[in-house]
Amino acid sequence: MEKSVKLGDIEVARIGLGTNRLTKTRDNISLVKAAVAAGLQMIDTAHSYTGGQSEETIGDALSPIPADASWQPRAAAGAALDAAAPRCSGPRWTRAFAG
Prior knowledge:
By secondary structure, the protein is an alpha+beta fold. The chain has helices spanning 26-37, 53-62, 91-98, and strands spanning 4-7, 10-13, 17-18, 43-44. A two-stranded antiparallel ribbon has the order 1-2. Strands 3-4 form a two-stranded parallel sheet.
């Protein structure tokens, strides 16, 4: 099996970090930092994960977020469930938590 996949013009590892249970704790901030330092390229997040704590945690861990960072939002995922919620995911939202 291939170890990476091409998303648009970016080659990324097939293994990523799912954050649907990631709460804002020091341990989880350290986890994200360590994963990225080890070469992790893909983090799956959404504002609905743990009431927004997932993106807050990622923002804190990656602050300051590099200007060349890339996001691939899953805009359609959960659209019916989140129809009443504001669209608050993606780089601007995560950068807001990074300060």
